[in-house]
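User
Here is a favour to ask of a fellow structure person. I am asking you to supply a protein in sequence and C-alpha cell form. Please set it down just below, with no commentary around it:

Assistant
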Amino acid sequence: MPDRLPPLTALRAFDAAARHMSFARAAGELNVTPAALSFQIKSLEDHLGQPLFRRLNRAVELTAAGRILAPGAAEGFQTLSAAWLQTRRLRDNRTLTVTAGPAFTAKWLAPRFYDFARAHPDIDLRFSAGLRIMDFERDEIDVAIRFGLGPDPGLFAEPLAVEWLTPVMTPELAKRYPTPDDLSSAPLLFDDSLDFLDTKCDWAAWFRAAGMDFVPHHGVQFSQADHAIDAALAGAGVVLGRRALVVKDLDECRLVAPYRLALTLDAQFRFLCPEGLQERPHIKAFRKWIWSEIEKTANISEGLQLVAAKDVPPA
C-alpha cells in the first residue's frame, strides 16, 4: 500500500458518503452522478487495499477501516475549508465584522459607529452582538471586543481603558441623595452581569470601600448591564455604572457620578483579533478609531478616587 495520500476528490467523495450514509445523497451534495461517486470510492478502496463500506441491499455501512478514516477525513476537510475561507478573506478589506457583548454594543459601539462610518465610507461595518465565544474562522469574525481576564492564546489581545465602577444616577436623583450616607435610603439597582468574577464588585463592596457598614438587600436586579443603566437613565434608581458602559452618558450629563469613589477591576475589555492580522488596513483603522474614542472621554476618570476591588476588605 503506497504511503502517499490518495486523490483529494476520492477522499471528498468518501467524506460525503460517510456523513450521509448514502451514495445517492452524497452524489447530490457534490453535484456528481452516483456512478461517478461510487467510482471515486472504489478507487479509494483500491488505493487503501481494503473496503471502506459494506454495500447492502438498499443502504451502506462503514467497515472498521471506514469508521477509522471518517472522523479524520471530516476534520481535515473542515480545517481545509476554514483555512481557505480565512485566506480568501485576506483580500477583503472592505467588510469588517465585529462581535461584542450586547451591553458594550448597545452602550459603546452603537452610539458611536456613525462617526467611524463617516470617516471610513469604504468599510462596511457589521456588528454581531452576543456573549457566545465565537470562532474567528468559522464565524468569519474580524474583531472581538470581550470583557474578562484572558488569557487569549493565539490572538492579538490589547486591553482597553482601565475599568471601574461607581454609583451613577440622573442629576435629579443626585440632588436627593447628595452624600454616600444618603444611598442607604436610595432605590438601588443591581447589575448581576459581573457575578462571574472571583472578586466581588457589588454594592456591598463599594460601601465597604467607602467605609460604610451597610449591606443592601433590596432592589431591582438585572442580568444585563445595559438594562440596569437604562433603568438608571429613566430615574428608577442608582446603579454601579461600569466605565465603558456609562462614560458617554456621563460625558453628556444624562447621568452623574457624584461620589468620586470608584472600584477598579482586574477584568477589562480587550480588543481581539487573530495574531498577525492587527495590521490589516480595515482592522488597523477600527483599532485606531476605538482608541481615539476612548481618549475623547478620558477626562471622566480624572478626579476619581480609584480603589482596587481586590483590596477592599472582605465582609
Notes: The first strand starts at residue 53 and ends at 55. The first helix runs from residue 8 to 20.
